[in-house]
Amino acid sequence: MELFFFQLLNGLGLGVIYFLLSVGLTITFGLLNFVNFAHGAFYMVGAYVTFVIVSLTGNFWLALLIAPLVIGTLAIALEQSVVKFSYVLEHKYQILVTLGVALMLQELVIMIWGPIGKNVSPPSSLAGIIEIGDFIYPKYRAFVIAFSALIAIVVWWGLEKTKFGALVRAGSENAQMVGLLGVNITRLFSITFGLGGLLAGLAGVLAAPLRGADPFMGVEALGIAFIVVVIGGMGSFLGALVGGLVVGVMQSVMSSVWPEGASLMVYAAMAAVILSRPRGLFGRA
């Protein structure tokens, strides 16, 4: 029972990271109707920026503050210089453009830091374990769960209770109409794209002490993000949250029950959702 509870908590930790990774992807698609294959690269670069800041300063908290802002700025710069010109193109061309951006970022990382992964140490204040009776759990993993839950609440509040969130939700229904009402839709697109990059970078920061930083983590993350979005439903905040938790818990629990089939069960769950609800659990028709 203790092992199951341990794996369940690990799954929640993975799930909230998957949520942060996926919510930006689903919001971007919901508003821009844009398929972003560079999203996993933002996650990867976030982990490497964390590695650099921690290596230079030894301060993980500084990385937690700065790295997401750096990735958000990078995302906006790429959107303004490359991505926005592909908004009017078919999805297959959008995939080619953003896949090219992702490969360029991956090769740039390999040129600078090499193909071997880098370890990132958690902050000393979160080293060690929490003991509750006979149950023990790593402090850093507990922090990831609590902090990501807080970020989820902040993102939900921003999307549901603010003017920006109302514009994003309205734009996801009819971006042309929002533009006709006098909203600078180009700026709204840029901010939304940057927010998606910021959240992916934040996921990379939180994941770095758990799995390190390596040049190929973006490809893995992109696959997971699309699974989460398919399960939860494209364009749905709640879907990204539920989908991330489902995938994270399933991966973690299955790794102790049937390690070889952990990934298989995730794809099986995605297939089951597609067959029963093609738009996802919470996606719009």
Automatic annotation (TrEMBL):
Q: Which GO terms describe its biological process?
A: amino acid transport
Q: Which InterPro entries match?
A: ABC_transp_permease, BCAA_transport_permease
Task: Quote one Gene Ontology molecular function term.
Answer: transmembrane transporter activity
Q: Where in the cell is it found?
A: Cell membrane
Keyword Repressor listed? The answer is no
| CDD domains recorded | TM_PBP1_LivH_like
How is this protein annotated for GO cellular component?
plasma membrane
Superkingdom is: Bacteria
How this chain sits in the membrane, per its record, is: Multi-pass membrane protein
**Can you tell me where the transmembrane regions are?**
12-35, 47-75, 95-116, 140-159, 188-210, 222-250, 256-275
The record's principal subcellular location, in a coarse class, is membrane
Keywords for this protein:
Amino-acid transport, Cell membrane, Membrane, Transmembrane, Transmembrane helix, Transport
- Family label: Belongs to the binding-protein-dependent transport system permease family. LivHM subfamily.
Q: What is this protein called?
A: Amino acid/amide ABC transporter membrane protein 1, HAAT family
From what organism does this protein derive? Ruegeria halocynthiae
